[in-house]
Design brief:
It is a single chain. With 265 residues, the chain is of the alpha+beta class. Helices cover 15% and strands 34% of the residues. Strands 1, 2, 3, 4, 5 and 6 form a 6-stranded mixed β-sheet that branches. It is globular.
Length: 265
């Protein structure tokens, strides 16, 4: 595989990303002639094709790089605060490819060591099973009730912010059925007027979040205690701490606040 001087690199130690500091205080993912570390012997360098058609490269290292005047390592989530959005999005896909590579070394059918045939396909030389990077689909929904929205705090949230009801799609479900089920399971509420908002790749480690709006229909809040620590309807003028802007949850909330929530009239 050949690289030019403009090739962009996404180098990870676990979920920590190597970032280059510019002299003007900005940051970017390193380019072809800037790498301070070479891949260790035997490491796979992966070519990653972005949705734009641009190709970047990624590999993992087995030790963290010390911070210098030129370099830092930061968590993938935290890199949103440093990198241009295009670099952050590219880092997300790169991380998903590395995660897939690490978790697809052996065929799940017969246990044979897999072989990589394309950038996104491995094949078992024994039974022919093909493996592609998996995507776990989840829904997230903003539930409205007049000038209020339903906000919850889940046990797995990293912080004190309140977010939206979310959950993974189950086999045999439509997305809309998943939205209804998750809201009912987590809060005991019935909803109506489910409308699609947008979707977002969520590389923590390999998800796709599909966002919806819905309206409260009936019921009293009964929290699923093993999932949620708190939840209530909050008025638009008295909202708690909200999710960071990197998430589709915040985009849903901001769209509702701005009156851009595809409300059924």
């Amino acid at each position: 595989m050949e690289y030019d001087l403009t090739a962009q690199w996404f180098v990870f130690f676990k979920d920590n990303l190597l970032i280059h500091k510019n002299t003007d205080g900005t940051y970017h993912a390193p380019l072809g002639n800037q790498l301070p570390v070479a891949p260790a012997k035997g490491q796979t360098i992966h070519r990653v094709t972005l949705p734009t058609g641009i190709q970047v490269y990624t590999f993992a290292i087995d030790y963290p790089m010390a911070e210098t005047d030129e370099w830092i390592m930061t968590g993938l989530r935290a890199s949103f605060d440093y990198l241009p959005l295009t670099d952050y999005q590219a880092a997300g896909k790169a991380y998903q490819i590395l995660y897939w590579d690490k978790h697809s070394r052996y065929c799940p059918v017969c246990g044979t060591t897999t072989e990589q045939h394309t950038d996104i396909m491995k094949k078992c030389p024994q039974c022919g099973n093909e493996m592609y990077p998996p995507i776990s689909t989840a829904i997230i929904v903003l539930v409205r009730r007049g000038e209020e929205i339903l906000l919850v705090h889940a046990h797995n949230f990293r912080g004190t912010f309140y977010g939206l009801v979310a959950g993974f799609l189950e086999a045999g479900e439509t997305l809309e059925q998943c939205v209804r089920r998750e809201v009912m399971e987590e809060t005991g509420l019935s909803i109506k007027n489910i409308t699609y908002f947008d979707s977002q790749p969520w590389p923590y480690p390999s998800g796709l979040m599909v966002g919806f709006f819905a309206d409260y229909e009936s019921g009293e809040i009964k929290l699923q205690k093993d999932e949620l620590s708190a939840g209530a309807f909050y008025h638009r003028n008295n909202l708690p701490e909200l999710p960071r802007k990197l998430s589709i949850a915040r985009r849903l909330i901001d769209a509702w606040l701005a009156g851009k929530d595809t409300r059924n009239k």
